[in-house]
């Protein structure tokens, strides 16, 4: 495996929290997925649109994109619009800002062999702006990061940009932006260049040195989600089993404080259990025997062997084998195009109130008003 993948910026949130995982993961083969290819396609499309919007030569990649569709085009258009808004804002206080698209950024001054690619880098006098596209929908990504001190991946990119352009510009302010269109998430975090360099020297560099040598302590947490060792890691197993050791009170029922203490652990516990089950099935299919368990044929549903022949037989018997169904909103938008869809159907589309979900109070969504709170508000 190439060394640049060893301590990558995109995995920095994991190896900063769990240094020894980096070396162990580097020894395992990378596994591609349709989601990864979809993200790659989205980045190629976004690169093309931004480059073209900047008045530079670019070739349309859409004929070669495996996952290109109306949703991706809409997301890419939105990203391009956001980037150009930031360029316009930069020009308000800088006559000729530097705008780099898909810029290689080397931060090996702090992380051995460390480099990555910045989706968009804007330098305007004393301001360095790193913009990163996240096309995935499964995990909400913030520019502030899990600890509120800045997204570590973007901070690594900022360090690379600072190292590259710092001699030409007096960069004092760092702005980090995440654009995640399929989660309606646009998030920005700001810090000073001095704060970034302090983090790099005091946190990033010493932890990266540990991780490169396979040192440090294993530590489980949310960062385990994309770790190659997540199913077999002993530290994660011990972390997940902590819930079973919860020191419950003697009372027969849990109070709200106890439930609040358990809730943050539920998602990681369920995720760990699912990972164990998926890994065990994969190994069992490869011949591994687990005492007390066996492989059996799962449930299946009946299916036609030849749909065209089925239709012919049913029609010959005097029946209609087809059902007519109105296209869903996504399919209808794809067929009409977004502009035509809005023109024809905007007055016939509503978005119902979403089903209540219990989340951490750090979630950026506004708090849901229950019927009780609505009643209380009317009484005031």
Tally of contiguous helical segments: 12
- Helix content, binned percent: 40-55%
Q: Give me the Rg, rounded.
A: 26 Å
Mean pLDDT: 88
- Please provide the count of β strands: 5
Q: Reading side by side through the largest sheet, how are the strands ordered?
A: 1-2-3-4-5
Derived from helix and strand composition plus strand pairing, the structural class reads: alpha+beta
Shape descriptor reads globular
Measured between the Cα atoms of the first and last residue, the distance is 65 Å
Using the 3D structure, state the CATH architecture of the largest domain. Alpha-Beta Complex
Strand percentage:
5-15%
Largest sheet: 5 strands, mixed
Q: Tell me the number of structural domains.
A: 3
* CATH class (first level) name of the largest domain: Alpha Beta
The stretches of 5 or more residues where confidence is low (pLDDT under 50) are 372-380
């Amino acid at each position: 495996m190439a060394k640049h993948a060893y301590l990558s910026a995109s995995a920095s949130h994991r190896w900063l929290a769990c240094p020894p995982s980096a070396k162990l993961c580097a020894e395992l083969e990378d596994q591609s997925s349709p989601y990864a290819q979809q993200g790659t396609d989205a980045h190629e499309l976004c690169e093309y649109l931004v480059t073209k919007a900047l008045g530079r030569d670019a070739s349309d990649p859409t004929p070669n994109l495996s996952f290109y569709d109306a949703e991706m085009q809409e997301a890419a258009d939105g990203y391009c619009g956001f980037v150009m808004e930031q360029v316009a804002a930069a020009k308000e206080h800088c006559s000729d800002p530097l705008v780099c698209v898909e810029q290689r950024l080397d931060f090996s001054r702090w992380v051995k062999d460390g480099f990555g690619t910045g989706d968009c880098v804007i330098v305007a006098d004393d301001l360095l702006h790193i913009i990163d596209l996240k096309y995935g929908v499964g995990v909400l990504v913030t520019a502030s990061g899990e600890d509120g001190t800045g997204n570590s991946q973007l901070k690594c990119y900022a360090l690379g940009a600072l190292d590259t352009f710092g001699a030409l510009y007096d960069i004092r302010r760092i702005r980090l932006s995440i654009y995640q269109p399929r989660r309606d998430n646009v998030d920005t975090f700001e810090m000073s260049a001095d704060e970034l360099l302090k983090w790099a020297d005091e946190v990033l560099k010493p932890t990266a040195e540990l991780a490169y040598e396979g040192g440090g302590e294993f530590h489980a947490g949310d960062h385990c989600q994309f770790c190659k060792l997540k199913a077999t890691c002993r530290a994660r197993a011990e972390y997940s089993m902590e819930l079973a050791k919860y020191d419950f009170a003697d009372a027969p029922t849990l109070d709200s404080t106890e439930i609040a203490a358990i809730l943050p652990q539920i998602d990681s516990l369920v995720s760990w259990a699912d990972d164990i089950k998926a890994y065990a099935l994969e190994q069992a299919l490869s011949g591994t025997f687990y005492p007390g368990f066996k492989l059996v044929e799962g449930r299946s549903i009946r299916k036609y062997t030849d749909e065209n022949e089925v239709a012919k037989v049913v029609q010959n018997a005097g029946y209609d084998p087809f059902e007519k169904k109105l296209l869903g909103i996504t399919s209808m938008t794809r067929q009409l195009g977004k502009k035509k869809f809005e023109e024809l159907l905007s007055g016939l589309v509503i978005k119902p109130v979403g089903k209540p979900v219990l989340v951490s109070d750090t979630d950026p969504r506004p708090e849901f008003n229950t019927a009780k709170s609505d009643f209380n508000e009317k009484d005031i």
